[in-house]
Automatic annotation (TrEMBL), chains A, B:
InterPro entries given in the database record: ABM_dom (IPR007138), Dimeric_a/b-barrel (IPR011008), Jasmonate_Hydroxylase-like (IPR052936)
Gene Ontology MF term list: monooxygenase activity
Superkingdom to which the source organism belongs: Bacteria
Entry keyword set: Monooxygenase, Oxidoreductase
Every ABM domain range: 9-80
Gene3D superfamilies associated with the record: 3.30.70.100
Classification of source organism: Bacteria, Pseudomonadati, Bacteroidota, Cytophagia, Cytophagales
The protein, known as: Heme-degrading monooxygenase HmoA
Organism: Spirosoma utsteinense
Length: 106, 106
């Protein structure tokens, strides 16, 4: 299911990553972070897929909402564990969505 | 491999999609579009993964570079065939990358 977002402008966080081979705890924590994000102020939606590279794009109403989510205590612990165990490398890109359009097959 | 992009600001196109079950021609065209994008003016990189949802993020030096790529003749034909055969739905989001940071395990 594609994320249903409002009219731009809004914000996107593009999180791309390469995993290590450590699987312990990863799936549960990833699921929990998605669940937790849904309850954050200003959360608009999320899309995620992983093959050689993992890509998670989350959508937010404001930069303040993104800052608030980054500083969430449980999220910070997950970020730290991610650097220690689960990720070989990652990149976070904070973006302003200026325009969007779509297609739906009838 | 994560895309190696310059210091912000630069631009990102987030293309998210749900596929139909039509596979004919899809893989070859997808590969060709990535190849073709690499030769476009202002192209900076691309990351892609597909599970339930497909996510392709391409990075560009300017909005003009994005417009130019959207209008490429071979790309336009692929877009049209995509709507007719390969995609149930898709969304394109044009974004300005304002900030980025990363992590690399040593």
């Amino acid at each position: 299911m594609l994320a249903q977002t409002p009219e731009p402008p809004y914000y996107a966080v593009i999180f791309t990553s390469i995993r290590t081979d450590v699987t312990e705890g990863y799936g549960d924590t990833a699921d929990r972070m998605v669940e937790l994000a849904h309850g954050q102020p200003g959360f608009l939606g999320v899309e995620s897929a992983r093959q050689a590279v993992g890509i998670t794009v989350s959508y937010w109403a404001s930069l303040e909402a993104i800052r608030h989510w980054k500083q969430d205590a449980e999220h910070r612990l997950a970020q730290q564990t991610g650097r220690e165990k689960w990720y070989e490398s990652y990149k976070v890109r904070i973006c302003k969505v200026e325009r969007d359009y779509g297609f739906n097959h009838l």
